Amino acid sequence: MSGFDKVVSDYSAAMSGLESGMTVIAGGFGLCGIPEGLIAQIKASGVNQLTVVSNNCGVDGFGLGVLLEDKQIRKMVSSYVGENALFEKQLLNGELEVELTPQGTLAEKMRAGGAGIPAFYTATGYGTPVGEGKEVKEFNGKPYILEEAITGDFAIVKAWKADRFGNCVYRHTAQNFNPMAATAGSITVVEAEEIVEPGELSPSEIHTPGIYVNRVIKGEFEKRIERRVVAKENN
Where would you find the membrane-spanning parts of this chain (predicted)? Predict the structure, then answer.
């Protein structure tokens, strides 16, 4: 089994090979399903000039937001960026390049990259600034714009359970962008809540097959709530 065992014991080994200037694709949606420890390791490593592809950039002081504190991110490819004041400041100051991408298009860019599809046509963004300068083609009388797929040097994802071979299960909405991100990295690193032995996961419940995964590490997660909303008491 040792030849197929992808578990590493520390975060330094998990992110070995990450260098300044690389592209990192990160799973998660807001603070839900984010690989907290892997992000912390990127911060601790001190690498910079990164291009980060993720639905958003976390919040101030948590998630991907911590990478803004030392200006480790050069470019952010995202679909939602409204919860981070430091992100806004760096964008307006010209310190951070941002490529806003419709959410479904971003997901498909990752999925296409992982599937070896270099580009695809979508109606989303046609006639808006998103579509400016992009090839347009009509299908059945409807215009579509050409979007290029995304791949990265590293993909970092968070799983609920993973086995030693890298097969992954995501829990509920923490699935979000993680399955697509996992396929699109040259090196894919999974941070899991629980690592189980091969055979303990039913084949029918596996979301990401281990063939896409290079390294697995067991993490400890704070699971911070991004915005708590509770019902008011009835008087």
Answer: none
Give the tens place of pLDDT for each residue, 190-208.
Answer: 999 999 999 999 999 999 9
Structure tokens at 232: 């008011």
Q: Is the pLDDT of residue 228 over 90?
A: no
Q: 37-59, pLDDT tens digit by residue?
A: 999 999 999 999 999 999 999 99
Report all structural domains of the chain as residue ranges with CATH numbers, in order of start. 2-116+150-218 (3.40.1080.10)
151: Cα separation from own chain's centroid = 11
- Dihedral of CA atoms 112, 63, 60, 184 in degrees, nearest 10, equals -20
Please tell me the chain's helix, strand, coil percentages from 3-state DSSP, rounded to the nearest 5.
25, 30, 45
CA distance 90 to 2: 46
Report DSSP letters for 170-222, one per residue.
--GGGGTTHHHHHHSEEEEEEEEEEEE-TTSS-GGG-SB-GGG-SEEEE----
Average pLDDT, whole number, for the chain? 94
User: Percentage of the chain surpassing pLDDT 90?
Assistant: 89
Q: How much is the pTM?
A: 0.92
Q: Looking at this protein, which amino acid is placed at residue 65?
A: G
Strand blocks (E) in 32-151? 50-53, 73-78, 97-100, 119-122, 136-139, 142-148
Among 61, 1, 115, residue whose Cα is nearest residue 224: 61
What's the rounded Cα separation, in Å, for the pair 43 and 67? 6
Asked whether residue 231 carries a pLDDT value surpassing 90, the answer given is no
